[in-house]
Amino acid sequence: MKKILVIDDDIHIGNALEETLRKEGYQVSRAYSGTEALLVLSQAKPDLILLDLMLPGLEGEQVLPQIKGIPVIVLSARKDPDEKAALLLGGAVDYVTKPFHTKELLARIAVHLRNAPGKEQAHVLSYQMLRLDTDSHMLSLDEKSPCENRSGEKDPGEKSPGEKGVKLTRTETAILKMLMQNPAQVVTKSLLLDRISQDTPDCTESSLKMHISNLRRKIREAGGGDCIEAVWGIGFKLK
Questions:
Q1: Whole-angstrom distance between the N-terminal and C-terminal Cα of the chain?
Q2: 119 pLDDT exceeds 70?
Q3: Domain boundaries, the chain
Q4: Average pLDDT of the chain?
Q5: Whether this model's pTM surpasses 0.70
Q6: What phi, psi does 229 have (nearest 5°)?
Q7: Domain 3-119 adopts which CATH fold?
Q8: CB 37 within 8 Å of CB 5
Q9: What is the pLDDT of residues 201-228, one digit of tens each?
Q10: CATH number for the segment(s) 122-238
């Protein structure tokens, strides 16, 4: 399921966009200011962004240069051709003038999602020595992992570097994928459950601890040591 971030402080327009996009099968997240948008983007990357220009805090023109590798469609009532050209040259893939026709916007979204580079090649993730193939659900190590237990010694039962990887469940893959995509962040439990729901319906708040425990065990079996850190009362992160 493709993810679209709607950045617009107009509640009515945002609600209408969200309803329309969800009916088309997209997963939708929202931000109501430029500052909030950058916070959302620091936690997870959508497949496409709909960006209004008149935002509280940071305006759309200030947010756009900070968005890398994600197609951005600007939605604005401004009609000045020089301004449109500047935004397109500044990183936007498209500019749609408000008010717009829903069918036209949906067509533009479909085209830019289809043309987005590199989306089909990101099925293998790497963090330090960990390698996760999200298609086959296989976890392996390139060589000796720098992850260690708290004593700094190799965990008992760890495999030697170069041994065959371990098979993860779909839920374990979704959890590790989310952590590896945000290695510098503490991923909250609520955000983790929300984001992995697109990959697996099997993880609930009550079962998350069990899935994390099983994932830690399998990482140790692969030779990766204790790489997942629990941040008390908040969530989890990779060491």
A1: 29
A2: no
A3: 3-119, 122-238
A4: 83
A5: no
A6: -105, 130
A7: Rossmann fold (3.40.50)
A8: yes
A9: 667 778 888 999 999 999 888 887 888 9
A10: 1.10.10.10
